[in-house]
Amino acid sequence: MKRTIISLGVAAVALMAALPAAAEIKPRIIRFGYGLNEDSLQGRGARHFAEELAKATGDKHKVRTFGAATLGSDMQMQNALAGGAQEMMVGSTATLVGLVKEFGVWDLPFLFNNEKEADAVLDGPFGQKLLDKLAEKDLIGLVYWENGFRNMTNTKRPINSVEDLKGIKLRVMQNPVFLDVFNGVGANAVPLAFSELFSALETKAVDGQENPVTTIESSKFYEVQKYLSLTKHVYSPWIMMASKTFWDKLDADEKAAIMKAAVSSREFERKDSRESTEKSMVFLKSKGMQINEVSAAETDRMRAAVKPILDKVKADIGAATIAELDAEIAKVRK
Ligand code: TF8
């Protein structure tokens, strides 16, 4: 009897040591929205975050995940976060450009050569500086996830060169960087929320779109698109955000627990993305998509074609910001 009580006591002490803050953490329900389907990188990453946060708070913080834009498009969710009507989300950075124009840097074509460069710049001081700018818009930028290198799909023809884009009605993300770049190379760019994209492709309101292969799979674009061209023209991050109204109610332990779970979800999701890319390609081929690589020479011609457009786009974002970014990338490449 005595021994049982002692060992129970030891177990309780051990438990308290494992969860030092749990006793003080208040119970909370966190509505966490995302735009892709539940079976997607965003869905799996969101569930990982929910599990990690439950562990870190002794089940006090309960994350309710809502996929497939059931809480609205990325832009609608951003507004809900800023207004305090929703607690958290993960989504595109492209739709933040209207709030903080510096976010346009992540949409610059051919900015990063590989994921390693992207991770270093996004997780470094430059990436953090952009996250910090969101507070004045009532948003808290927590961490970046990986959306990935974007590729083109369409129903008209394989894109082997920049000329092949001419006249293609292409859905683009809703910001001036994407509009200027794609219109600049001769496509007919149509800005549209991601949540409206599948039906726009299905009804042929647009001929094509561009996204990483993991999204082309999870959003079933292979059902309505024939050609997949591996252009890798932009590396897109995703951003995990909290409502500032919500964040300001939390005490330091709660913030630390959310940050820790957010960083864990970032690592989990990036690994998932990198492991899924090859599998998605095999899957898309099996669904009858016609896949083409773009030669190094043609990629160089694409870079040259966007160069004059980028000069204007970069001036709009701000010369000082671009200089800072370039310095960061140079540091990473050294
Ligand atoms: C896009 C993005 C999407 C995001 C997602 C729904 O094309 O690449 O991944 O908007 O959050 O809009």
TrEMBL record:
<dbReference type="InterPro" id="IPR004682">
    <property type="entry name" value="TRAP_DctP"/>
</dbReference>
<dbReference type="InterPro" id="IPR038404">
    <property type="entry name" value="TRAP_DctP_sf"/>
</dbReference>
<dbReference type="InterPro" id="IPR018389">
    <property type="entry name" value="DctP_fam"/>
</dbReference>
<dbReference type="Pfam" id="PF03480">
    <property type="entry name" value="DctP"/>
</dbReference>
<protein>
    <submittedName>
        <fullName>TRAP transporter substrate-binding protein</fullName>
    </submittedName>
</protein>
<keyword id="KW-0732">Signal</keyword>
<feature type="signal peptide">
    <location>
        <begin position="1"/>
        <end position="23"/>
    </location>
</feature>
